[in-house]
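Hello again,

I reread your note about wanting to compare the complex against the isolated chains. To keep things tidy I'm splitting this into two emails, and this first one only covers the full assembly. Below are the input lines as submitted, including protein chains and any nucleic acid or small-molecule components. They are followed by the predicted structure of everything together. The single-chain runs will come separately.
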Amino acid sequence: MSRATSRATSRATSRATSRATPRAMTRAMSPSTLLPSSGKVRLGLAITLFFVLLAALGPLLTAYDPQQSGPDILQPPSGQHWFGTTQTGQDVFSQFVHGARVSLGVGVVAGIVSQVISVLVGMIGGYFRGATDELLYVLTAVFLVVPGMPLLIVLTGYLPSRGMVSVALVIAITSWAGSARVLRAQTMSLRRRDFVEAARATGESRTRIIFSEVMPNALPLVASGFLFSVITAVLSEAGLSFLGLGSLTTTSWGSMLYFAQSAQAFLYGAWWWFVPPGLAIAVVGAGLALINFGIDEFANPRLRTGRSRRRPVRRSGPVAAALAAATTAPEVREPESSEPTDPGPQVRPADVAGDPVVSVRDLVVEYDTPDGRVRAVDDVSLTLHRGEVLGLAGESGSGKSTLTNAVTRLLRTPAEVTAGSITYHRRSRDGSRREDVDLLGLPDDELRVLRWSEIAIVFQSAMNALNPVTRVSAQFDDVVRVHRPTMPAADRRALAVQMLQKVGIEPDRVDAYPHELSGGMKQRVAIAIALVLEPEVIVMDEPTTALDLLVQREVLDQVMRLRDEYGFAIVFTTHDLALLLEIADSIAVMQTGRLVEYGPALELYTDARHPYTRALLRSLADLGALL
Amino acid sequence: MKYLLRKVLLYVFIAWAALTMNFLIPRLMPGDPVSLLVERLNGRIDPAAMSAIAESYGITDDPLLVQYLDYLGSLARGDLGLSIGLYPVPVADIVMGALPWTIGLVGTTTVISFVIGTALGVVLAWRRGKRTDLLLPGLTFLNAVPYFWMALILVLVFAVNLGWFPVSQAYTPGLTPGLTPEFVGSVLYHAVLPAITIIIASFAGWVLSMRNMTVTVLGEDYVTMAEAKGLPRRMIRLDYAARNAILPSVTGFALSLGAVVGGSMLTEVIFNYPGVGYTLFQAVQNQDFPLMQGLFLIISLAVIAANLIADVVYVFLDPRTRQEG
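Full-complex prediction:
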């Protein structure tokens, strides 16, 4: 039910907020894009507004008192009684609009009270930790698990008088826990962020930090929690009143249903009596939930649905969303070079012995953004030779990841290859047969066969690249099973153990889960998995960035030794030019999607021709990284 | 196993809290329930029964702690007091009579709706951005439909107008309960409409939460890596995406279970289904406080037990919880 959704989506939200790129956040922050961003949200707002107006103004539209009996008994809707009449001749429309006031009123009051409790319990627990947190956590767990409705029934059963306010308070008491737990998790993650640490360091008081630093960042969750509390409260009030436990002297949607039920309205087919209140509850609930969709999507860009390809000109959320959801969002920057003239790409012939294995020709990759099309990769040509280490350097947003994703066919919408070609030059093991494969045009089934057996990948963060819930052995096993279907299970396992040993990992770790390995070990496992089918090409996307320096060095040495042993070619992406100068045969420097310099590593070092490359080298020299 | 032990301890504590809450509610609520009771029941039953009720109700002039120990003592003996409405039938007997119906109906439908909802949520996540997204507002609507209203509509259409299913009861009156084909058939026939009500009113929540989780997981690096490995699509979706996305759904079970049980109780009322919910409704109508409390206690303990089971399942699904130390 609603509360389950609220919790699970919010959990997703709290996980994802940290991942949203600053760019996507700032874009979504501006109110002009927030309001009209999605049809769902607009529909939700319209529904909510309609019922709020109905509750406020509706009673003015009707001449009948909701409780007043009349001579017309169980009349279907007519001009005189818009929604018909009840068994005692009361006007259903009048009851409906008066009921809207009560139902929504109870919902809002209970929603506010419940959310205040959630915020206090969740934030205090999440921020202070320790014994306070333990205590509040257990308290929350009790209210989370003990079923709300029966508790509500028992509590109201004992209430001496059942006014709407006391019903609302009781509902609030039974429904705050889910939201409190979500807020606790968010607070715990927020308190470790830099800006909170900074506020602590400057000696701000805890209350101030909670309310002026943490709270604003948890606001989407508070808002979403509030809306769900309102839904829960409206439903609970209806349920209670329906059982005859609400205030039966007050007309609410729930008490309408109670009287309809006890008068057996459905046996008489008096649909006009019980359809409107129930339908209204459901529609209001759906309306609030739709607004919540918007809040979730705002906080978690991945949830947004990318409609960008169909409507490129619309200035709207989904586009920004899809952009953020794509593996890399290109950022258009002014060239940072101090030298005014751009001499164009500086390309020198490579002096590598092997023949080409991948050739990229005049490749253009574009993204649709609200501000028009952005060229993430702009007319790039590269050749990777067998056994070559090709370094791809550039700052984040230079398009290097988009380029490698194009080669591995892992581009996500809205990124699109609009020109150029990528060719894989296949060669049989003995070198007798050769064949050129058009990577971009390869059908899905053939692509699947080529993947990993010919082009494998090592991702930037092995922490996220290994499936957290299966053993290391299984992550070797699935890929071998798919690509070498005839290999017996025992051989597959032996192969996994052998590959692990190649990267210096004990055989017994083959049955470990990723979380049981250190960061460096995980990256070695990822490398071992990349090697298992002895591919021709391994794309390494900043494979060492997440590791500390010593581990980085060990992993690099290992990679280079394995390259000598197996002879695969490497595309090595990094922003660390010093590293590339050391390991790469050739280096390609990218800036804002364009290739600015490309050639043998040594020549690039001794004789850089492009001002951007020279600026990079100079900054390395200033840091003392180059001797 | 430390994780599991902590969980078990937590649930033991929650169970104790529920017991204690059950003890405290009548004593802490404003007003004096016994005199309220006497006032309300005055003239309806004879004075001798009246004092017996007050006594069996456990609210005496003893200090609170003594009352509390008495309460725990009788609970340990399985003594939940005597019903007022059906005086002098023990509450425990009434609860035991109602429990199988609810566990059968609500237990089965909860599992079915979880399975349907989760599967559909995964499918909708894979197809995000396609036309199936248009189902989302509809599902949101379903998710907000009150159970009892859904029940009313289904009764109107399928029982009253079309006459396909019985309007109420759990089996045809007059049949002798037993494992006869006639009786079992009648029970299943009567359960169809309430079961459909609960499934329709509860599956949408699972769909929406599972869809959101799967969409989030589909953006994870390990799913991209699975794709780069050239694995078949089915394997990526099941072993990598769905396998990870289901974890929060299993934990989320706790919350929704409470809501599903609450909603199902109202559904039972509509169908006069002789389960715990309907019995609670009757207890409330008759101001049968001992029965009310006994039922609340049993419902709470059942939900707590279901949560514990969900957490045990979680331990098997997520190796990270099995970490030693």
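For quick reference: The longest helix of chain B spans residues 181-218.

B.
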